[in-house]
Amino acid sequence: AWDDSAVTRFAFDYSTDGGSTWTTIGEDTAPVLEQGEWDTRALHWKGSITWDSSELADSSYCLVRATAYDINGYSDQAYNSYAVDHTPPEMYWNLSAQPGNGYVNLSWAQEPYERKAYIYRSLNPGGPYQKIREIEDCSYHDHQVEPGTTYYYVVTSVDEAGNESPYSNEVVAIPDNDTQPPVNPDLNIQMQEKIGKEQTLRAYATDYGRIESFDFEYSLDGGGTWTPIGTVSSPENPYGDFWEGRLVWNSSSISEGPCMLKATAHDAAGHSCLKEREFLVDHTAPEALGGLTA
User: Could you tell me if 19 and 63 are in contact, meaning their C-beta atoms sit under 8 angstroms apart?
Assistant: First the structure.
């Protein structure tokens, strides 16, 4: 809701008879302020609540009402109509697994109304399974595996209403040893070419297996000697074979001038690759602004 003061709470209700009678869902008494996100002239507030709607009849329609109250006692309402859907989607019968060097590749045919898929894994046939990933795709590389270990997988389809299908057919895979080093390394500093007093270092690499860590170092003598900055363990794997490590570095003690940075990616099989780049250390503040008026 928009308000020029403070929204103090949101109240949520629902109706199954077109608005003649209302049933309380609950309240959010700690709205979040998003000041100036779209319009700096007003304050934008957001409220949310978790609602267990399992008591509603399947295939019916439900009217939901949200009421915003501000600090001065004023209020306003918004309405929306939803179709109740408790029917799970069809289960998969086409899951396949292809073991690779340090990974297992899973693929399946996506359902027409699928919103996302849950991936489950077990060390035993038939489970019990542990959910390892939620994705919005129809394939997945499982990097969190050990060569020579037998893994059993199933997937489920999740529709727009959050209904989850039964388990798919089960597949089994035994990943091989990872014989390839990481490739395509890169290194940057918040997309800049200069090093300030504090910045976030970002390193990237791709690997079919699993990258375990990124090491960051700097050199002030053109790469003759290197000083450790820090290590990022268990880096992020946002998609596919791409891995990213981020580290905040306080470089205020580094003298101004040229500085070499190095990032080294280490994978689970003991292979590595590195990237070196030259930057300029600049701790000099810009001149003060002049001519400010109000």
Answer: yes
Query: Residue 223 contacts by C-beta under 8 Å, 6 or more apart in sequence?
Result: 260, 262, 276
pLDDT(5) > 60? yes
The number of CA neighbours under 13 Å toward the Cβ of 195 is 26
Which value, in Å, is the radius of gyration of the alpha carbons in the chain? Answer: 27
Q: State the pLDDT at residue 195.
A: 83
**Residue-by-residue DSSP string for 136-159:** SSSEEEE-S--TT--EEEEEEEEE
pLDDT per residue as tens digits for the range 143-171: 999 999 999 999 999 988 889 999 999 99
Q: Write phi, then psi, for 166 (nearest 5 degrees).
A: -65, 170
Question: What single-letter amino acid sits at 189?
Answer: I
Q: What share of the chain is helix, strand, coil (3-state, %, to 5)?
A: 0, 50, 50
Exposure of 118 in the CB half-sphere (CA atoms within 13 A): 17
Residue 203 has, within 13 A of its CA and on its CB side, a CA count of 31
Dump pLDDT digits (tens) for 102-120: 999 999 987 666 678 999 9
For 199-219, the pLDDT digits (tens) are: 999 999 999 889 999 999 999
Q: List residues bridging with 274 in a β-sheet.
A: 264
pLDDT (average), residues 242-268 = 94
Cβ atoms within 10 Å, residue 262: 20
Measured from the Cβ of residue 288, the count of other Cβ atoms closer than 10 Å reads: 6
Burial class of residue 176 in the structure, from the number of CB atoms within 10 Å of its CB (0-12 exposed, 13-18 middle, 19+ buried)? middle
